[in-house]
Amino acid sequence: MTTFLGGIALLIIGYFTYGKFIEKNFQVEPDRKTPAEVLRDGFDFVPMKKQTNAIIELLNIAGTGPIFGPIMGALYGPVAYLWIVFGCIFAGAVHDYMTGMISLRNNGAQLPELAEKYLGKSVKHVVNVFAMLLLILVATVFVLTPATLIADVTPAWMTPTLAIGLIFVYYLISTVLPIDKAMGKVYPIFGGILIISTFAIGAMLIYGGVTGAHVLPNLTASTLGNFHPEGTPIFPIIFFTISCGAMSGFHATQAPMVSRTMTNESEGRYTFYGMMIAEGVIAMIWAGATMTLFDGQTVSQMIAEGTPSVVVNNVSTLLLGNVLGMIAILGVIVLPVSSGLSGFRSLRTILADYLSIPQDSLKKVLAVTIPLFVVSFFLTMVDFQLIWRYFNWANQVTAVIALFVATRYLYLKGRNWLVTFVPGSLMLYAVFVYILTQPIGFNMALDVTAYILAAILTVGLIALFWYSGSKQKDSLSPQSPLLNDHLPIEEVRRLQSQS
């Protein structure tokens, strides 16, 4: 239990120490007007309270990622704790904070627009493809997993297909509502269910450890190894198995949404960095509960029989009983439902921007939204494990892009860019190893050849990144928007009127 409690303590300490350092490095300006104030449109740009923004951010980024990922990551044993804790503090929370704050400084721009501005116009098309691929996969996963959970805990007439249909109906209604109505009113309720259920599972886990009802595994010299029952290697797979609980590119598509509703830059550390730390705590609880209650072979068998939702049901009822366990399951259901909604909302915005379709009428909103729902519905019929693998890879590719956008931003401003470059480079290497060696990629053997080839590709891409960055910096004038964060608001409004 020492490792479990110590990991959670480190996450909290990380928020007050490294989070403060990251905030200072960014150099917030509390008096600067935010997009919610100067671009207020009553739909996406709407000023909302700090706590409401934080809850929306947490529910947007969480989904089933910090639950399903750690459940599958628990197969590796206590070593999973290391990636959750240190990945969250030094990679995931930094990734979320920087993406959210850079978007805030750029009129709530989405990742493709930020990539175009800081990495070049040609990069925007690549980022758009990855962002849209990621979001359609995320939205599909976050429809399929809650539908499975709903079908598991309801009467037989509630089939997964019917549950999927009901979720799409909710998404359709919520998609066309202003953000303060679609999320601002409902999400605090969802957030309450999530917090209560997660706290209850964590409390019972600790109580059982204190009373001796069960033993929480600790990370020691003897347990610092790979306990995966199928022998799946830790690197790079664990980076893709536990993503939302440590670092996830999906968050880079969600933070800009909240940057459009914030009213003060000083809220950024709490809203972006802090909610990622909260997600890390959720991941620790579910990884700890899975390792404590089941051996790796049992977990592997339960996952093989369906999805990790089977493990969710068992953990919830074993720790909390049938009644409270049902509340915990509801908490797990609201996570993916809320994240799926925000995923579709982000996907609609990115696709509409890319195709230059203004979202200024219900007809235009539905023209973009309904085809996306149709594609996602057919994807729900594909094997979950296959979708999960593609989602994991596209997810971390997006995280790499976001971290390199942040690195370029910090570099051009003469600030400490290592804070984003180091995790970005590590994940870039992992992304290459993964796609070279996995069946969804080139299916090479995971050996020295694959590691060397991935290293060559990583170094080559980093060299190109720094070459283009140095040329970009040399060409800048003091008045460049790249140094002054965003165009004057009058210019933004002029461009909007033209489009």
Automatic annotation (TrEMBL):
Q: Which is one Gene Ontology cellular component term of this protein? A: plasma membrane
Q: How does it sit in the membrane?
A: Multi-pass membrane protein
GO BP annotations listed? cellular response to starvation
- Which protein is depicted? CstA N-terminal domain-containing protein
Per the record, the major location class is membrane
Q: Which residues form the CstA N-terminal domain?
A: 6-168
Family per similarity comment: Belongs to the peptide transporter carbon starvation (CstA) (TC 2.A.114) family.
Classification via Pfam families: CstA (PF02554)
- Compartments where located: Cell membrane
Residue ranges of the TM segments: 80-104, 125-151, 157-177, 189-213, 233-250, 270-289, 323-344, 365-387, 393-411, 418-436, 448-467
UniProt entry keywords in alphabetical sequence: Cell membrane, Membrane, Transmembrane, Transmembrane helix
